[in-house]
């Protein structure tokens, strides 16, 4: 593995997406600042979370779909003419895209947790739900990455991104129905249950599996352009 | 120095509706090889296999001493590649692309890149999306040349250019190639482009190599003879006859093994040779492909 070359490709993706990263971070921080200053207003909190989730999903889809964009805009032959193998290209594309998303995702998650913990009016019992749903967004983004990189099809990628976004509501509703998660959401203290740990572990395992499948498929491809 | 920059041996690639069939191709180091073929003949597939972008189903490919596709990263360090479907990133400037390439290629020649900027009349600070198609092709050519590659692979670089831009790009390319010795593989369906640049020519059609020789040999060997047959005289057997047209009394014979003795052989048999026409590369290409499609031997 030519690590130096992979790093340069990652840097290239960061440079090309720098404006989107910056504006997403600013948009997310401003939204969270408004939520924090709302003194626990349910309406402001719900609207704020919708904005943040939209930013995360939108940013995730945009960054992760860059493999499709490279093919569509015909920059893939340029990249593949560089001294790299296709596995190195795949590594750079997945790691670079995930790093971009993870920076945004981590900043948002830390800010949301800080808001819940430090701003007045928010029950700390929300934290397990927020963490599980945040990892669910990360998992959904990894799914979009896997589909974008392996199929390089705009139709499939957009379709999976839409299904991922829609299923977020359904999964949120499903998780809230667990008594030890939904029932503890209005609690003043954090109650981390075995169900929460199991859900989180499943999500992390699914992320690892998605990435492994992506590399497995890519390593067996014969035509790249 | 290796004798052959590129060696294809029995290379086959099968698609649902197209097969690149048992390609044998050798490009001597220092030569400029023009790969000529109609659209869909297999030129791009051949060059993509050469670059490791498509893996062959059978056969072996050696590029600059590296086995493809396994050692493609090493080989591509020494290859400058430009294809008609290649685009640079639209939002960044040409300068950003130059810096990106400089960070990758150890042989990147900044002074040469700057001289090419002037020669190609390009502005480093200009965004790629603000350039015309001709300027984009020149920008991509600059990026390919300034890395000082041992092998330059150009896949239909002038396709889609207007006549002025095409002449500019070809002119600049010829000037650059005249500067120093390079190994170049240049594919095109435009025989005029290939005739100007190449010193070796290979015809490819329907996934198979039809003919391969150096350009002068092509142009020297192929002739069109306009003959006048006396009444009740049959056309004498001539070497390398690829096509016979015209009428039975005034046949027009295309041969790929012409030599002055052919004219004297005709005259000795009472056949008058009205003219011996030199053929253009395009005429040679068409005659060669048609003959092969009709099942003739070349």
Tell me what the structure shows.
The complex is a heterodimer of chains A (225) and B (298). Chain A has 225 residues and is mainly alpha-helical. Chain A has one domain (3-219). Chain A is built from ten helices and no strands. Chain A has helices at 3-16, 18-36, 42-64, 66-72, 76-80, 86-118, 127-151, 154-176, 179-182, 194-219. In chain A, α1 (3-16) crosses α6, α3 (42-64) runs parallel beside α7 and α7 runs antiparallel to α8. Chain B is an alpha/beta fold. Chain B folds into two domains: 4-215, Rossmann fold (3-Layer(aba) Sandwich), CATH 3.40.50.300; 223-278, no CATH class. Chain B is 34% helix and 30% strand. Chain B is built from ten helices and 14 strands. Chain B has helices spanning 43-51, 72-76, 94-104, 110-119, 133-145, 163-179, 191-197, 215-221, 260-268, 281-293; strands at residues 4-14, 19-28, 32-36, 58-63, 66-68, 79-83, 151-155, 183-188, 200-205, 208-214, 223-228, 241-246, 251-255, 272-278. Chain B has a six-stranded mixed beta sheet, sandwiched between helices. Chain B is elongated and about 75 Å long. The model of chain B has no long low-confidence stretch (mean pLDDT 89). The interface between A and B is medium-sized, with 22 and 28 residues.
Tell how many strands the DSSP assignment of chain A holds: 0
Question: How do the strands line up in the largest sheet of chain B?
Answer: 6-7-8-3-9-10
Task: Give me the CATH superfamily of the largest domain in chain B.
Answer: P-loop containing nucleotide triphosphate hydrolases
Total domain modules of chain A: 1
Instruction: Give me the number of helical elements of chain B.
Output: 10
Sequence stretches where pLDDT stays below 50 over 5 or more residues of chain B:
none
- Given helix and strand content, the structural type of chain A is mainly alpha
Low-confidence stretches of chain A: none
